From TrEMBL:
<comment type="similarity">
    <text>Belongs to the Nudix hydrolase family.</text>
</comment>
<feature type="domain" description="Nudix hydrolase">
    <location>
        <begin position="84"/>
        <end position="277"/>
    </location>
</feature>
<keyword id="KW-0539">Nucleus</keyword>
<dbReference type="Pfam" id="PF18290">
    <property type="entry name" value="Nudix_hydro"/>
</dbReference>
<comment type="subunit">
    <text>Monomer and homodimer.</text>
</comment>
<dbReference type="Pfam" id="PF00293">
    <property type="entry name" value="NUDIX"/>
</dbReference>
<dbReference type="GO" id="GO:0051287">
    <property type="term" value="F:NAD binding"/>
</dbReference>
<keyword id="KW-0963">Cytoplasm</keyword>
<dbReference type="InterPro" id="IPR020084">
    <property type="entry name" value="NUDIX_hydrolase_CS"/>
</dbReference>
<protein>
    <recommendedName>
        <fullName>Nucleoside diphosphate-linked moiety X motif 6</fullName>
        <ecNumber>3.6.1.-</ecNumber>
    </recommendedName>
</protein>
<dbReference type="InterPro" id="IPR000086">
    <property type="entry name" value="NUDIX_hydrolase_dom"/>
</dbReference>
<dbReference type="GO" id="GO:0047631">
    <property type="term" value="F:ADP-ribose diphosphatase activity"/>
</dbReference>
<dbReference type="GO" id="GO:0005634">
    <property type="term" value="C:nucleus"/>
</dbReference>
<dbReference type="GO" id="GO:0005739">
    <property type="term" value="C:mitochondrion"/>
</dbReference>
<keyword id="KW-0378">Hydrolase</keyword>
<dbReference type="GO" id="GO:0047884">
    <property type="term" value="F:FAD diphosphatase activity"/>
</dbReference>
<comment type="function">
    <text>May contribute to the regulation of cell proliferation.</text>
</comment>
Length: 314
């Protein structure tokens, strides 16, 4: 999925109206929200008393607000929270923040209703808290849905279109992104490569699968990242400027040797070089379709090529 808006640098931390220096979540009962609530009532200002409650910026240009450990709000406090939230959202919008993440402890669930009345929706819930979001950026929300695990797919071809990524680490990587629900692996690779580089291609095989647990980009769940071999049918690059800094066709040998590539990219480049020289049948995990017994639909099975004598065994 191509990002359309660059993230603000963390140094330009999101602020809340009336907020002072700290970016932290609330400290606990008696401080933070309680003080802020009293302040809000006392001064009658919509936001002035909420100085302790700060949004923490994230690397995607969003802002996160933790309501943890606050005293259970009473009716009037909910109204004050609503005024604070409305004023804060207006300020975050002015700052160019793309999204708000509101973490609401279960005992303060009534605040979720206040937030919902201002356009927030549930993103996910864990045992003790719910997380609500509101998209502030342009167009429809591009926030990823919550993960049970997530599947990322990238594609390459033996002249390799590579992205020089802006976020996390500046390193060459294969273009790719998150699979949509119900989307086949090969379709994700072809779609993501087109969206991020403008290059049209056809799925050939799976080359590698990486499994990584507690992945920060998957909300702490497990991330499966699959790299596919694609056959390009167009060669002009028109890349997504928000998601990458540079995008170039790279020589496979150079990609296998450069230090400026992620480890997974280097290893897959070496694998491809081997396949290119010795035959792709040495490296390809290919796909076959079979009828699904229970649903009457078809599923895709990925495995190394089977010799005909084994394939036709009865
Ligand atoms: N080792 C490697 O070479 C790399 C592998 N990967 C894998 O690729 C997959 C993900 O690829 P991507 O290109 O990141 O996916 P993607 O191309 O689908 O883009 C995801 C989009 O969602 C946006 N996004 C994600 N979380 C967000 C949030 N909290 N708030 C706002 N916007 C948010 C991002 O800015 C980006 O525009 C994963 O499986 C990951 O493990 C990603 C980077 C490098
Ligand atoms: Mg991507």
């Amino acid at each position: 999925m191509p990002a359309r808006r660059p993230a603000l640098p963390e140094a330009e931390a999101g602020t809340a109206p009336g907020a002072a220096a700290s970016r932290c979540a609330m400290a606990g009962p008696g401080s933070g929200l309680l003080r802020a609530l009293r302040g809000a009532r006392g001064r009658g200002s919509p936001a002035g008393g909420w100085a302790g409650l700060r949004g923490r910026p994230d690397k995607y240009g969003g802002v996160s607000v933790e309501l943890a450990q606050l005293p259970r709000p009473r009716r009037r406090e909910r109204a004050a929270f609503g005024r604070w939230l409305r004023a804060s959202v207006a300020q975050w919008q002015e700052e160019g923040r793309v999204a708000v993440w509101l973490h609401v402890p279960i005992l303060q669930s009534r605040l979720a209703a206040v937030a919902a009345s201002q356009g927030f929706t549930f993103h996910h819930a864990e045992s003790g808290s719910a997380t609500l979001t509101r998209w502030l950026g342009e167009g429809p929300s591009r926030l990823p849905g919550y993960a049970t695990h997530q599947l990322g797919v990238a594609g390459e071809s033996h002249r390799v279109p590579c992205e020089h990524r802006a976020s996390t680490v500046n390193a060459w990587k294969f273009p790719g992104g998150l699979s949509n629900p119900g989307e086949d692996i090969g379709d994700t690779a072809v779609r993501e490569v087109f969206e991020e580089t403008g290059i049209k291609s056809e799925f050939k095989s799976i080359l590698s699968i990486r499994q990584q647990h507690q992945h920060p980009g998957a909300f702490g769940k497990s991330d499966m990242y699959i790299i596919c071999r694609l056959e390009p049918s167009s060669f002009n690059i028109n890349f997504c400027q928000q998601e990458c800094l540079r995008c170039e066709w790279m020589d496979l040998d150079e990609l296998a040797r450069t230090k400026h590539a992620t480890p997974i990219t280097s290893n897959v480049a070496k694998l491809l070089l081997y396949g290119y020289r010795e035959g792709f049948d040495k490296i390809d995990i290919t796909m076959r379709e079979f009828p699904a017994v229970y649903t009457g639909r078809f599923y895709k099975l990925y495995h190394r090529e089977l010799p005909k004598s084994y394939r036709n065994m009865t």
